[in-house]
Design a protein that fits this description.
The protein is of the alpha+beta class. 30% of the residues lie in helices and 36% in strands.
């Protein structure tokens, strides 16, 4: 225990100012702000007037300076004018992190923070710029009248990202396609990449092809898939239209038939109804006639009786 204390004591006495920076590169999204971290444990009784700090890019472009208790920006590199900010309230605790506004591709590189309070020290922070790519878009050539056994060239495009990506083609079983693949990554005038990859495949009855784009910095994957069905797509358009036509005709026929049937049914119903009505009338007539003779006969009987009487 005492050995450890002694070691720590010796260590702190012997070392110059110990600067802390991240080991991994700092990722700056293109156009956004980024903080480049750098801090030290200030000596006791430390005053800002004793502090000199400098941020430089690749050791010669001056990014930001702070000496004698104030910012010194006369020698600031034009690329960084109005784009850098220290955190003033953090300085007294040894936090000399720098905020960089509106990250540009040209900012990518190694930033060095220098500090002098009694002793000097410096440390490097690597800034890695990244820009996400557009969602990949797939094209087939040829895209029509495909039959199993046909050779199809598939093209995958993705745009406006940074830096270069890793692009992989996969079939429906998740196997990487490595043969007959050509990938080109070309930077535009702004330095952003346009990635174009083609793969030539021999079509089977049906398969799904996927273009996967791995962003090495953002560590994300974007993808697009296409399912190519040889038989389905080889179905000639004329046959399709003929089939559609036939279907429409059939449907028309069915509708016509249904109408005719309905009409016929209605007619039969009406006829039946009409017949039923006649029968009723006839029945009533019969009833009447059947009653009348009864009445008549009774009347006749009466009459007869009266006559007889
Ligand atoms: C750092 O400064 C201390 C005094 O504050 C001194 O004892 C030490 O030797 C210095 N270290 C270096 C590496 O200059
Ligand atoms: C920096 O900002 C000031 C004030 O907003 C402005 O006047 C100046 O033109 C800016 N300089 C640059 C190089 O953008
Ligand atoms: C330094 O200051 C920045 C801005 O306030 C903060 O994000 C960061 O965590 C600070 N670093 C340390 C080590 O305190
Ligand atoms: C496909 O390729 C990618 C990138 O080269 C690799 O990371 C992955 O493991 C491969 N997958 C298979 C199934 O081989
Ligand atoms: C790659 O292309 C060659 C020549 O066109 C062809 O013989 C071969 O079958 C193709 N490979 C695959 C996996 O399609």
């Amino acid at each position: 225990m005492s050995a450890l204390c002694l070691f720590l004591l010796l260590h702190s006495v012997a070392s110059a100012i110990e600067l802390h920076v991240p080991d991994a590169p700092v990722i700056g999204l293109l156009g956004e702000d980024v903080v480049l971290p750098c801090w030290f444990s200030p000596p006791t009784g430390f005053s800002l007037r004793e502090l000199s700090l400098f941020w430089k890019l690749t050791t010669f472009q001056q990014v930001h300076a702070f000496t004698l208790g104030q910012e010194q920006l006369e020698n600031q590199d034009p690329d960084f004018i109005n784009r850098t900010l220290l955190f003033p309230e953090e300085l007294s605790v040894g936090n000399m992190s720098l905020r960089l506004r509106g990250v540009r591709l040209s900012d990518e590189g190694i930033f060095t923070c220098f500090v002098n309070v009694e002793n000097s020290s410096s440390a490097a922070v690597r800034l890695q710029v990244a820009a996400p790519f557009s969602k990949p878009v797939l094209h087939l050539e040829p895209s029509e009248s495909l039959k199993p056994g046909d050779k199809v060239t598939m093209t995958c495009h993705t745009y406006h990202g940074y830096p270069e990506v890793e692009l992989v083609w996969q079939d429906g079983r998740g196997h990487n396609l490595t043969e007959n693949v050509t990938t080109a990554q070309v930077a535009n005038e702004k330095g952003l990449f346009h990635v174009q990859s083609t793969v030539v495949v021999t079509l089977e009855t049906s398969d799904t092809y996927t273009c996967l784009v791995y962003h090495p910095v953002l560590r994300d994957v974007t993808q697009s898939s296409v399912t190519v069905t040889g038989q389905h797509l080889s179905f000639p358009p004329i046959a399709l239209w003929v089939t559609v036509g036939l279907c429409v005709c059939l449907l028309g026929l069915l509708v016509a038939l249904a109408c005719v049937c309905r009409k016929q049914l209605k007619q039969t119903c009406e006829e039946e109804q009409a017949e039923a009505g006649d029968e009723e009338v006839e029945e009533n007539g019969e009833l009447k006639t059947a009653m009348q003779p009864l009445k008549a006969s009774s009347a006749g009987d009466d009459d007869n009786t009266s006559f007889i009487e």
